[in-house]
Write a structure and sequence with these properties.
By secondary structure, the chain is of the alpha/beta class. It has two domains: 211 residues, Rossmann fold (3-Layer(aba) Sandwich); 78 residues, no CATH class. The chain is built from nine helices and 13 strands. A six-stranded mixed beta sheet has the order 5-6-7-3-8-9, with helices on both faces. It has a four-stranded antiparallel beta sheet with strand order 11-12-10-13. A three-stranded antiparallel beta sheet has the order 2-1-4, covered by helices on one side. Helix 2 runs antiparallel to helix 3 and helix 3 packs antiparallel against helix 4. The relative contact order is 0.15. The chain binds adenosine-5'-triphosphate (ATP).
Length: 296
């Protein structure tokens, strides 16, 4: 399957501290991917490297097979909304739409205008006078109007109210279904991500903890509840990701390599949220997806 974004041992350092380290991942075409991790995990750094705003200090990042830092031509295929949704504050939304139409090859003016109308946002007001959430909506409308092949969104819904959030994610999904755009969006709102994403990248402390298709990851993990567990191997379990114990009972989130049939264990399916929380809690033990054998 074709990969839109690929990184190989990608690293970015600020002074002596690595903001992103040994990051190897693939994002296949057509996916809507969640980029998840605690504050300071390296999410924005990864997005900035992918859009060529930062130059790697180690390894490589390729978007559509090219280095975004050295090849500005591919930027026409990438839409990016940064975390603080920077816009020229003295410009009106209408002026920004006109500017977009002059600067972009595949610009969809009607889409941008319709979204603003749908949202009840005046196209004639300087965007600096809009609320933070309204400005985010304008930035997102402009990003969709670019009709990019890859859309990178850094916490796009953080400043939106719950209804606006739901509406935006629906609009995003509609646009993706129509155009086949690959999306990578960072967010802390796991329930939102669970609704819209079919791929996930979990970062912690500058390193990739988990990456893969949501279906594959959910299929290859289980929660086990049973007698207090020591180190003894359990048939069907490739690795224990997270364990919690009482005096007599253990609850394990495990990666499986076959069915767990030992009757001592009650086996439950996991949700994406269970998985993300388990891998985030286990952030001290990073590994590449290759090491886990999780399909990319
Ligand atoms: N310009 C900078 N100068 C120095 N350190 C930086 C800079 N930008 C980011 N960092 C550091 O790099 C690390 C990763 O930051 P990054 O912004 O990528 O995290 P994040 O996962 O996007 O966090 P958040 O969820 O808070 O937005 C952090 O430790 C941060 O302090």
């Amino acid at each position: 399957m074709e990969n839109v974004l690929e990184t190989d041992q990608l690293g970015k350092r600020y002074g002596k501290a690595w903001a992103l380290r040994d990051c190897s991942l693939r994002l296949p075409v057509g996916r809507v991917a969640a980029l998840v991790g605690p504050n300071g995990a390296g999410k924005s750094t990864l997005l900035h490297l992918a859009v060529g705003l930062l130059r790697p200090d180690a390894g490589a990042v390729r978007v559509f097979g090219e280095s975004p830092y050295n090849n500005t031509a591919i930027l026409s295929e990438i839409g990016f909304v940064a975390q603080d949704t920077p816009l020229y504050r003295d410009f009106t939304a209408a002026e920004l739409i006109t500017m977009g139409s002059k600067l972009n090859r595949r610009w969809d003016t009607a889409l941008a205008r319709n979204r603003l109308a749908q949202l009840g946002l005046s196209p004639d007001q300087p965007v600096g006078k809009l609320s933070g959430g309204q400005r985010a909506q304008v930035a997102l409308a402009l990003a969709l109007a670019k009709r990019p092949k890859l859309l990178l969104l850094d916490e796009p819904v953080a400043s939106l109210d719950p209804l606006a959030r739901r509406e935006f994610l629906q609009a995003l999904m509609g646009s993706v279904a129509e155009t086949g755009t690959t999306v990578l969006l960072s967010s802390h709102l796991l329930a939102d991500l669970e609704r819209v994403c079919d791929y996930v990248i979990v970062l912690h402390s500058a390193q990739v903890q988990l990456v893969g298709a949501v279906d594959d990851l959910v299929d290859s993990h289980r929660q086990l509840i049973g007698p207090r567990h020591g180190d003894a191997p359990i048939a069907g379990v490739a690795a224990v990701v997270r364990a919690s114990h009482t005096d007599r009972q253990s609850t394990l989130l495990v990666r499986t390599n076959g069915p767990v049939t030992d009757p001592a264990w009650t086996v439950r399916e996991v949700t994406l949220e269970d998985l993300i929380l388990a891998y985030l809690a286990d952030g001290a033990a990073p590994a590449s997806h290759a090491a886990w054998g999780v399909p990319a």
